[in-house]
Amino acid sequence: MAVLAIRFFGDPVLRERARPVEKFTDLHRRLVADMLDTMREAPGVGLAGPQVGVMDRIFVWEVEDEYGAVINPDIVEASQEMQTDEEGCLSIPGLVYPVERSLRCTIEGRDSDGLPLRIEAEGFKARVFQHETDHLNGVLFIDRLAPELRKEALRTLSGQALGLSVPQRGNAGSQDAL
Ligand code: ZN
User: Fold this and answer.
1) What are the pLDDT digits (tens) for 21-53?
2) Which residue of the set 64, 120, 132, 152 is catalytic?
3) Known catalytic residue: 41?
4) Coil, helix or strand for 120?
5) How far out from the chain centre does Cα 87 lie?
6) How far is the CA of 47 from the centre of ligand 1 (A)?
7) Alpha carbon of 103 to ligand 1 centroid (Å)
8) Average of pLDDT values for 65-81?
C-alpha cells in the first residue's frame, strides 16, 4: 500500500500519450492497488496513470460502491445524447467547470489480471470513464470547456502559476475530482 505523488497542471507528463500495456505482471496489480490508495487519499473518484507519472494506459475509478481498474481502455460506444455536469480534476485542484460528455458509454479493456472487461456506464460513471480515457491521450477536462470558460480557467491557472493564489487540495468539489 502506497500513496503516489500526484502530478499537477503544468507538468508535461499530463500532455503525453500513454502506451498500451502489453504484459500483465504483479507490477500492474501493485500499481492498481497504489493508484486506488492515491485516489482515495486525495480524495477523488478517478485517477489515470499519467497523473502519477506512469505512462501506461491504465486508470482506476470509484463511483458509489463500485470501483475498479481499466487497462488499455477503449470507449467502443458513446451516446449521441449528451449531458453537461460539473467536473474537476485531481491534477487541477480547485477548478470545477461544467463539461459536456456523452450521457452513456461502453468501455472495453483489461482488468489488473489482464482479463478482458466490458462495462456499460451511464451518467457520472460514464463521465469518469471519458475523463480518465482522455488523460491517457494527454487531454484535460479544461480542453473540453466552452471557449469563454476555457479562457477563464486558463487565466485562473496562470494566476496560480504566478503565485496569486495557491491551489488547495480538498477544496469544495474535490470529492468529485478525477
Ligand atoms: Zn483528471
Assistant:
1) 999 999 999 999 999 999 999 999 999 999 999
2) 132
3) no
4) strand
5) 10
6) 7
7) 18
8) 97
